[in-house]
Amino acid sequence: MSAAPGRPEGGGQERSGNGPEQNLPEQGSPAQNPSEPDSPEREAPERDSSAPGRDAGRPRPDGSSTQQQPEPSRAPEAAEPAQSAPVAGAASDGPAPGGGADAPGGPAEISLDDDAGLNPEEEALRRLLKDSVDDLEPSPDSLDHLRRAVPARRAHRRQAVVGGVAATLVAVVGVPALFYGGVVPGIGDDEHPLTASSSHGETHGPEGDSGDNRGKGHDKDKGDKSHDKDKGGKGGGDAHPSPSGGPGQDGADPDDTLSASAPSCGREQLSNATAQAGAPDGQGTVYGSFTVTNSSSDACTVDGSGMVNASVQGGPERARVTVVDHTPGDAAPGLGDPAAASDDLVLRPGQAYIVKFAWVPQGGCNGNAPTPDGSQGDPEVPDPGAGGDGGDSSNGGGDGGGNGGTNPGDGGAGGGSGEPGGGGEDTSVVLTHTPEASGQPVAQTRLQGGCGGGTVYRTGVLRGE
Amino acid sequence: MIAPWPAARPARLHGQRGDTDDAMAAGTTVDHLTETYRAHYKSLLGLAALLLDDTASCEDVVQEAFIRVHSARKRVRDPEKTLAYLRQTVVNLSRSALRRRILGLKLLSKPMPDMASAEEGAYEQLERDQLIQAMRGLQRRQREVLVLRYFADMTEAQVAEVLGLSLGSVKAYGSRGIAALRTAMETTS
């Protein structure tokens, strides 16, 4: 203990060099009564008390240059540690014994060196600390464990992040969409072709045929038109004149006036839907339609023309089916005048809208495939898998025909997403219709004869009878 | 075929940055992990041993610190800061380990049950070390300051940052800690 008072001073002084008075007094006065209270005056008293033999030490304050004098007088240990941190001598001696001798040396050197060096005692402590744990070695498998654990943890984090992002997205996008979808007229038509074609992407890309181009051109027209109308809708009564004045295509002026007042059709209002497909004509083209009825007791406005999706079922090679908008002069003249389509049709209770489509198969199957039941056994049906199962394929044809008739939209989603590898069934195309307000298909129909792919032409929303 | 290339090349070039790409990050982290392991694991083990009052959980703490730091991609982006992150994490974990032990709860799940047996000799020795015992007699803050300042060779400013203390507090804790330590060592010896 005798040494104890001296040493803290050593430590204290070193630190005091940096900013002595402020720190020590604040903090520790209770703990270290002897040294700290003195701190303001510390230097003089400490040196006196701590090292009587330190006479050499006292002069230092007077002239820093004299520093080195005291050191030689002291134990050599003291001098060395100050200059080079890892002095073995001082450290190995251990703090306890060496400390008494070193303590005085410490303050002196430090006062000059400031932070740069540790005083001997600190140096000793440093070495002791390092020595004490020097024998610790990582366990042999610790690196292996880390190599496994880090990726695992990272995956964990990523999942958490993804989950968080997903939840945020749902909140940010979904919630407003709920309100928005029910109140505000749908976004312009121009988005639908993109959505429709991308939803069965593999069918779309390669076919850069004229059908696509025409479709796009048409889209733009529609987009412009719908933008105008959207503005009108949002603007309320004031803006109303603009839609009717703008494109002026659909002679449904009375409906337009109504559209300002009728809210958009919600998903539950349009859940009652059917699909029908006729028999193939001479070229194999199948005409059909989706009929969606306003099943609620309120009038509502059908915004946008919804989506028509085609998915190919059966057949090992994925036939390509493209859905394009019907345009004048395309391969489906039976669909009527595209201008007849309405972008915001008002449905009174019980009224229905119709989306017509035409299925124009492509390629070698043209002559045979279109018939729903007929030519299933045809060798040209390019289905090696199905080829083995003659019976099945004919069954498939039968089913297809049956479904193709009218299939209420109940199983819309399931049918639409049916696995392409549909067992022994022959290649067929399942068309689904999803109204703008609905998240999922409300009606579907199955068309035969898609062995070589083809094109589905669709109309916009037409007023039902 | 496109993705792997950009991923692989930067990984080799800068072996230490893991940001943009998953593959890249995975590749670099392993390298970076091994590198930091070799460079710092042992010293961090010592750091944990000095901070904690039981040696059994040292390796757990260091392991957890490595896993945490290396699984956070942004933290390994700058390799020079890795050691700082690791030390900080070890300090934090040691504190919480202490707290939990005080509460009588079990620390972290033990990743390596056989750890103790493998290194028992060294840890046992540590238990008998006079300095270690004296260190454990210090207040936690004093011990932390001393360990970071002298074992980890951090400056007082760095210690202050890691511990969330003011510079003055660090100095005070340090000087008091040394004094207490000296007293403890002298009485025992």
Automatic annotation (TrEMBL), chain A:
**Which residue positions does the secretion signal occupy?**
none
Q: Name one Pfam family in it.
A: DUF4232
- Species annotation: Streptomyces cacaoi
Organism lineage reads as: Bacteria, Bacillati, Actinomycetota, Actinomycetes, Kitasatosporales
Where is the sequence biased in composition, kind Gly residues? 385-425
Where is the sequence biased in composition, kind Basic and acidic residues? 39-61, 123-133, 201-233
InterPro entries given in the database record? DUF4232
Q: Where are the transmembrane segments?
A: 160-183
Q: Where is the composition biased (Polar residues)?
A: 15-36, 429-447
The molecule here is called DUF4232 domain-containing protein
Q: What are the boundaries of the region Disordered?
A: 1-158, 190-282, 366-465
- Where's the DUF4232 domain? 269-373
Locate the compositionally biased regions of type Acidic residues.
111-122
Keywords per UniProt: Membrane, Transmembrane, Transmembrane helix
Which superkingdom heads the taxonomic lineage of this protein's source? Bacteria
Q: List where Basic residues composition bias occurs.
A: 148-158
Task: Mark out the compositionally biased spans (Low complexity).
Answer: 67-95
From TrEMBL, chain B:
Q: Which UniProt keywords apply?
A: DNA-binding, Sigma factor, Transcription, Transcription regulation
Q: Where in this chain does the record put each RNA polymerase sigma-70 region domain?
A: 37-101
Query: Which parts of the sequence are annotated with region: Disordered?
Result: 1-23
Q: What is a single Pfam family found in this protein's UniProt entry?
A: Sigma70_r4_2
**InterPro entries in the record, alphabetically?**
RNA_pol_sigma-70-like, RNA_pol_sigma-70_dom, RNA_pol_sigma-E_actinobac, RNA_pol_sigma70_r2, RNA_pol_sigma70_r4_t2, RNA_pol_sigma_r2, RNA_pol_sigma_r3/r4-like, WH-like_DNA-bd_sf
Recall the GO molecular function terms of this protein's record.
DNA binding; sigma factor activity
Please list the GO biological process terms of this entry. Answer: DNA-templated transcription initiation
**What is the annotated signal peptide range for this record?**
none
Keyword Ribosomal protein belongs to the record = no
Every copy of the RNA polymerase sigma factor 70 region 4 type domain together lies at: 129-181
Q: Which CDD domains match?
A: Sigma70_r4
Spell out the family assignment given in the record's similarity comment: Belongs to the sigma-70 factor family. ECF subfamily.
Q: What is this protein called?
A: RNA polymerase sigma factor
Organism expressing this protein natively: Streptomyces cacaoi
Tell me the classification of the organism that encodes this protein: Bacteria, Bacillati, Actinomycetota, Actinomycetes, Kitasatosporales
